[in-house]
């Protein structure tokens, strides 16, 4: 794919839309979860206020260079994921910088933020951060295994590693979606999706009630604001990949909004009705149930 | 009523030796090197707190204050019986989340320290450390009459009486104990104060640092931490 300078403002516009969509959608999902508990819940604009508040704090302290770079790596993981994956199929400006092998790059970017965070949280010197990060890496690694297998199955099925071509192959009707042409691979990938959105039952890593809040224990002020920004961008970016390779992609922003919201509701609904797993329980769960489905998906293709 | 606070614990000259693990010492590393260790200096930053100026443009500061007022993050640190009255605020009956109030598990991310009831001297030490680790602008709310004048603990041998001698308090919520409704009303008042720009507790603490430290050290006899630990 050729590069043109106009792609840069186009990609930034996509990022802007996704940021605002993410801020509102996560608040709506939080509100829905609160309604399940019988509470009115936060206002839908609460995320914006929290973000401004954290940027407006007057004092901040640093624990070193890597401590600075932790949130930066995390945010670049989320933004990179958006930039290298086509958001809207067929749109001239929401294609971003997608290219022939972007599926592999996307898999890498999903992990990139967690690794950066491990370095940053490690330097903060707080034992809770170190424990939280090691828990997070262990759990995310186990959860990503079925996803990796599902992606191989999809790549064999469509004979390509380009997300755009995979979306193109699914156009022309509901039953062309990977969901119906290769349901086993989708089932395997959904294990990973539920496991890595950091919602209950797999949120022991960052849950405030556990060892206090895990990796971000020492993060505050603008550092925390960067991480909050990533926490709304990253789930959307990940959902875009799932939507593209399993659920037919989106041809316009309305379809995008509906599909991402519905996909995000899957872990949200599972989250409000299930208690939290411990790390060793969730790893065992993914290896016992997720991994065999992933292997089966490869064998079926 | 006799005010016992002036003399409270101040006429005791008992010296507490520093705990063994905090004393400066020489340690031999596994490869035979001899290094000096001074735990109180090595593990903590000793710089005194600074006064942070407001934003230059008033409208920006007002906007920031509005955001701060609508996003109050409370440090989940319950000191006395008042902690019990705070928990119902998370439940469907009162639900403080709809006012932008959240509980944060770490002092780094919190802006509001609730001293929820009496403070024993031992707890005061932890409250001071937690307060100093919070990032400014930060607010302190005293809950219940024990934080105002000692309340029912007015003649206790081990409980501080007036909280504002040890930490800069922005707001008191009177009662023994105040009900959750009173807490919500108090939060609304605190929001008004923050929006009016009157909650500058962090700067007050930095300006009168010597005063607060003198009061804290006069009651905390086993002072085994640096003067300002963040």
From TrEMBL, chain A:
It comes from the Bacteria. It holds the Pfam family NADHdh. The keyword Ion transport does not apply. Signal peptide: none annotated. It is a multi-pass membrane protein. Keywords: Membrane, Transmembrane, Transmembrane helix. GO terms for cellular component: plasma membrane. The chain crosses the membrane at residues 6-29, 65-85, 97-121, 133-154, 174-194, 256-273. PANTHER family: FORMATE HYDROGENLYASE SUBUNIT 4, FORMATE HYDROGENLYASE SUBUNIT 4-RELATED. This is Membrane bound protein complex subunit mbxM. The lineage of its organism: Bacteria, Pseudomonadati, Pseudomonadota, Alphaproteobacteria, Rhodobacterales.
UniProtKB/TrEMBL annotation, chain B:
Pfam families: Oxidored_q6. GO terms for biological process: aerobic respiration; electron transport coupled proton transport. The keyword Metal-binding applies. Gene3D superfamilies: 3.40.50.12280. One of its GO terms (molecular function) is quinone binding. The keyword Cell membrane applies. One of its GO terms (cellular component) is respiratory chain complex I. Keywords: 4Fe-4S, Cell membrane, Iron, Iron-sulfur, Membrane, Metal-binding, NAD, Quinone, Ubiquinone. Residues 80-189 form the NADH:ubiquinone oxidoreductase-like 20kDa subunit domain. NCBIfam families: nuoB_fam, PRK06411.1. Belongs to the complex I 20 kDa subunit family. This is NADH-quinone oxidoreductase subunit B. It comes from Aliiruegeria lutimaris. The lineage of its organism: Bacteria, Pseudomonadati, Pseudomonadota, Alphaproteobacteria, Rhodobacterales.
């Amino acid at each position: 794919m050729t590069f043109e300078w106009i792609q840069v403002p186009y990609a930034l516009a996509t990022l802007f839309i996704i940021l605002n969509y993410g801020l509102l959608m996560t608040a709506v999902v939080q509100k829905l979860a609160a309604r399940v508990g019988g509470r009115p819940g936060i206002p839908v604009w609460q995320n914006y206020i929290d973000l401004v508040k954290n940027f407006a704090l007057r004092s901040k302290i640093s624990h070193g260079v890597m401590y600075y770079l932790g949130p930066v790596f995390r945010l670049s993981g989320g933004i990179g994921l958006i930039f290298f994956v086509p958001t809207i199929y067929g749109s001239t400006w929401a294609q971003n910088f997608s290219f022939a092998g972007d599926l592999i790059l996307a898999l890498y970017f999903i992990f990139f933020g967690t690794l950066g965070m491990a370095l940053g949280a490690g330097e903060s010197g707080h034992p809770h951060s170190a424990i939280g990060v090691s828990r997070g890496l262990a759990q995310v690694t186990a959860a990503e295994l079925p996803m990796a297998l599902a992606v191989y199955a999809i790549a064999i099925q469509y004979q390509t590693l380009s997300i755009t071509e995979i979306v193109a192959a699914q156009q022309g009707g509901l039953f062309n979606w990977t969901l119906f042409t290769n349901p086993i691979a989708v089932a395997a990938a959904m294990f990973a999706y539920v496991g890595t959105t950091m919602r209950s039952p797999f949120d022991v890593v960052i849950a405030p009630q556990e060892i206090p809040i895990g990796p971000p224990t020492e993060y505050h002020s603008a550092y925390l604001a960067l991480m909050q920004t990533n926490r709304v961008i990253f789930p959307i970016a990940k959902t875009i990949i799932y939507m593209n390779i399993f659920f037919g992609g989106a041809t316009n922003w309305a379809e995008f909004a509906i599909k991402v919201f519905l996909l995000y509701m899957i872990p949200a609904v599972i989250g409000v009705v299930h208690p939290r797993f411990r790390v060793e329980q969730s790893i065992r769960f993914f290896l016992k149930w997720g991994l065999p489905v992933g292997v089966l998906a490869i064998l079926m293709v | 009523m006799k005010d016992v606070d002036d003399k409270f614990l101040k006429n005791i000259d008992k010296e507490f030796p520093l705990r063994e693990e905090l004393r400066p010492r020489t340690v031999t590393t596994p490869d035979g090197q001899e290094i000096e260790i001074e735990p109180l200096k090595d593990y903590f930053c000793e710089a005194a707190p600074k006064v942070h100026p407001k934003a230059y443009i008033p409208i920006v500061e007002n906007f920031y204050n509005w955001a701060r007022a609508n996003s109050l993050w409370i440090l989940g640190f319950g000191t006395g019986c008042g902690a019990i009255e705070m928990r119902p605020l998370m439940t469907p009956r009162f639900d403080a989340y709809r006012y932008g109030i959240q509980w944060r598990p770490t002092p780094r991310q919190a802006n509001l320290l609730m001293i929820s009831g009496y403070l024993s001297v031992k707890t005061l030490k932890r409250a001071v450390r937690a307060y100093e680790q919070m990032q400014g602008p930060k607010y302190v709310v005293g809950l219940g009459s024990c934080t105002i004048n000692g309340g029912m603990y007015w003649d206790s041998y081990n409980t501080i009486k007036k909280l504002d001698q040890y930490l800069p308090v922005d707001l008191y919520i009177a009662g023994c104990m105040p009900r959750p409704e009173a807490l919500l009303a108090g939060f609304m008042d605190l929001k008004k104060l923050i929006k009016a720009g009157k909650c500058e507790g962090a700067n007050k603490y930095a300006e009168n640092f010597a005063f607060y430290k003198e009061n804290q050290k006069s009651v905390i006899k086993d002072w085994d931490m640096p003067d300002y630990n963040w």
